[in-house]
Amino acid sequence: LNDAAESMSPAVIANHCYDIAKAYNSFYHECPILKESNDAKKAFRLQLNAETGKTLRYFMGLLGIEMPDRM
After folding, report:
1. Per-residue model confidence (pLDDT) at position 59
2. Are 36 and 42 in contact (CB under 8 A)?
3. How many CB atoms sit inside 10 A of residue 29's CB?
4. Mean pLDDT confidence for 29-38
5. How sure is the predictor about 5, in pLDDT bands with cuts at 50, 70 and 90?
6. Cα separation of 42 and 35, whole Å?
7. 57 in Cβ contact with 69 (< 8 Å)
8. What percentage of the chain has pLDDT greater than the value 90?
9. What residues contact residue 33 under an 8 Å CB cut-off, 6+ apart?
């Protein structure tokens, strides 16, 4: 956020969102969430999923972009 504010460039935030989404997409394809048999891993992955969604929603909100509730 500081970099975006100092450079007066919202693209810094948009690029950060894109990087988060790319990293999460790779994780999602490599690590099944609901099919995971280990309950601790499954709980961690579900929490990571929720936190990633919150983070993207927050940053996209700063850009004035609405996010869908579900994908």
Report:
1. 96
2. yes
3. 8
4. 94
5. confident
6. 8
7. no
8. 86
9. 42, 45, 46, 49
Q: Do residues 24 and 52 make contact, with C-beta atoms less than 8 angstroms apart?
A: yes
| Mean per-residue pLDDT, 45-62 | 96
- Give the residue among 56, 57, 27, 29 at the shortest CA–CA distance from 44: 27
pLDDT tens sequence across 56-71: 999 999 999 998 887 6
Question: What is the Cα–Cα distance from 65 to 57, expressed in whole angstroms?
Answer: 9
Q: What is the DSSP-derived secondary structure letter of residue 1?
A: -
The token pair at 64 is: 């004035």
**DSSP of 18-41, one letter per residue?**
HHHHHHHHHHHHHS-STT---HHH
For the CA atoms of 30, 46, 24, 4, what is the dihedral angle to 10 degrees? -160
Taken in order 43, 45, 49, 52, the sign of the CA dihedral is: positive
